[in-house]
Amino acid sequence: MTENSLPVAAFTSLHRDHSVRAQQQETEQANQPIIQVTGLEKSYKTARGELKLFRNLNLQVEPGEMVAIVGQSGAGKSTLLHILGALDTPSAGTVYCASTNVAQLGARQAAAFRNREIGYVWQFHYLLPEFTALENVAMPLLARGTTKREALTVAANWLREVGLEDRADHRPGELSGGEQQRVALARALVCNPRLLLADEPTGDLDEVTADRVFDLIERLHASHGLTSILVTHNLELAGRCTRALRLEGGTLVSMASVPKLAGLAQAGSDLEL
After folding, report:
1. Do 20 and 5 touch, CB atoms closer than 8 A?
2. 140-177 pLDDT, tens per residue?
3. Does residue 272 form part of some domain?
4. Which residues fall within 8 angstroms of residue 252, CB to CB, at 6 or more apart?
5. What is the DSSP letter of 79?
6. Is residue 248 part of a domain?
């Protein structure tokens, strides 16, 4: 079920959403960071004792920034994104995201917050194989109670934005890896979130396709007034972000203070960290 043109009401709604988003971003820029993490601690109990993942970690992200986070495997990059996106809770510290103390949200509140404020893209697309690309993109809208007609109309618009309007009726198994990730990106943004969290969004793609997907992320970041945090092992892509941070020793360090890594990023090296 694909619609080639948006009804006037749906188009007006989308335009209004973008206008409201622009106003929100202007207000946020004038008043406060979109992310403020202070004294973050995260610990796990293991058979060998307590494992401390974060130690007094602090992070501030301003509206409109695109921040890259790199670090060794097991450093806690994905866990940090999960905490910022209200998928996990800290052991200590405060985590404000989009003016909300996410650490204090109950399960239902956290789910509603994610649906309203967060777009999440994973290394693997996690599309539902029995549904078409259009239906996959519409899922978050249906989850919030949007009518099927309106959800499919808005989803069709997002498929056009990522260049896949001609793949609307295809199921994930009929799409290439790059196309699947573009569908996943459309799904992440279909509810017009303020924050995009991307966990190795190009990690499962070849170099050429990864560059194209990252180009698309950059374009959507700018055109929709997003604030984005990306975990990546690709230093060249990290170097294209507003700034890059390295997660090491349980805290975040600016890449500018790690000369060797900063030099590698400038040289365009692609290393798995």
Report:
1. no
2. 999 989 999 999 999 999 999 999 999 999 999 999 99
3. no
4. 57, 58, 59, 69, 245, 246
5. H
6. yes
Global model pTM greater than 0.90 = no
Q: Three-state SS string across 25-48, please?
A: HHHHHHHCCCEEEEEEEEEEEECC
Write the single-letter amino acid at 79.
T
What would the pLDDT profile of 104-139 be if each residue is shown by its tens digit?
A: 899 999 999 998 999 999 888 889 999 999 999 999
- Which pLDDT belongs to residue 48? 84
Q: Which contacts of 130-134 are long-range, i.e. CB under 8 A and separated by 24 or more positions?
A: 130/171, 131/171, 132/168, 132/169, 132/170, 132/171, 133/159, 133/164, 133/167, 133/168, 133/169, 133/170, 133/171, 133/172, 133/175, 133/179, 133/183, 134/1, 134/2, 134/159, 134/168, 134/169
Is there a domain that residue 1 lies in? Answer: no
Residues spanned by the domain of 168: 8-267
- Report yes or no on 244 lying in a domain: yes
Domain containing residue 47: CATH number: 3.40.50.300
How many Cβ atoms sit within 10 Å of the Cβ of residue 73?
Answer: 8
Q: What is the mean pLDDT of residues 48-56?
A: 86
Amino acid (1-letter code) at residue 234:
N
- Integer Cα distance of 125 and 57 in angstroms: 29
CA distances from 99 to 27, 87, 145, 232 (A): 12, 17, 24, 26
Say how many C-beta atoms besides its own lie within 10 A of residue 259's C-beta: 9
Distance between alpha carbon 118 and the CA centroid of its chain, in Å?
Answer: 7
Question: What is the total count of domains within the chain?
Answer: 1
